[in-house]
Amino acid sequence: MTEREPDRERLLLGMDIGGTKTVVALARATGEILAESRLDDWASGSWKKDVQTLVEHARVLLRGAHLPQDALHALGLSVPGPLNPVTGIVINAPNLSGWTDVPLVEAFWNVFKIQVLLENDANAAALAEWRFGAGQGTHSMLYLTMSTGVGGGLILDGRLYRGASFQAGEVGHMPIVPSGRPCACGLRGCLEAYVGGAALADQIREDVARGEAAAILELAGGDPAQISAELWVEALRQGDDYARRLRHEFLGHLSQGLAILTQIFDPGAIVLGTIVRENPELFLDELRERVYEQVWPSLRNVRIEPARLGARLPAYAAVCVAALEPPDLSPSGSSST
Hints:
The chain is of the alpha/beta class. It has two domains: 11-126 and 313-322, Nucleotidyltransferase, domain 5, CATH 3.30.420; 139-307, Nucleotidyltransferase, domain 5, CATH 3.30.420.40. The chain has eleven helices and 13 strands. The protein has helices at 47-64, 104-112, 121-132, 192-195, 197-209, 214-219, 229-237, 241-265, 275-278, 280-293, 313-322, and strands at residues 11-16, 21-28, 33-40, 72-79, 83-84, 89-92, 100-103, 115-120, 141-146, 150-156, 159-161, 269-272, 303-306. The protein is globular, with a radius of gyration of 21 Å.
């Protein structure tokens, strides 16, 4: 996505598609959201039926805004999982049963007959935070999602960077501990294995089995299966010693990952979602200090900020995809955004 004066009258439709929640938004190219709706627990197990559901939902949104379908300029699709934005195929969407090798762009183009653009949801979120959130005013920005796992998106020199095989931004799977903890991706020592929500819960359960983390187990009602990163944060707020030790390890691993990214990409900002966004007072100050200690002095002006869009992120993410230029088809594999 390049910065340019938008056509204020251009109407965009965006869909942020997830297994349990999908947001459909209608907006102007300037980012003004005109209408927005949400579907919960909507997926059927058949991608064709799911597309029909989304099409009908979009039409309801248009009717509610008193707009005809031909008023739309472009449709943006933000989808989790491996995908190819050039061919328009979703290779495999986690938590969407039946979504394997789905020609999603073609399916929507057959209905709307407008430009349809497909993007990974982490990249879409990065675009949204860059244009409308914590990354505004920067030329290069890194965005990290930090929920069950750790994903990311890279805005470099004013463009979304996808990589040669459209897998750039998978920062959760850079190795930070040689032969370290196993990661859900099949590798070992990944950043996600130390700071992702699921990995943190697993670590706490292991420590419970060794007789530690008693306060978190109590918060879980005595059931280790109920342990979560959220309960760790709650124990941390209560001043629990184990929770504080885990915080020290968490910040050590996260700061190392962010320092590596800073040294490589020299971003103007690093924007963090979920755990850090929801609890900035518990993490941000020390995280910044630790990152700055590990990079050159000339790189210590990087802003490390919590994401700002919150509940509005899915709508803005989908609309930002609709505002993209089509990916470049050049043999070099580079992508113009």
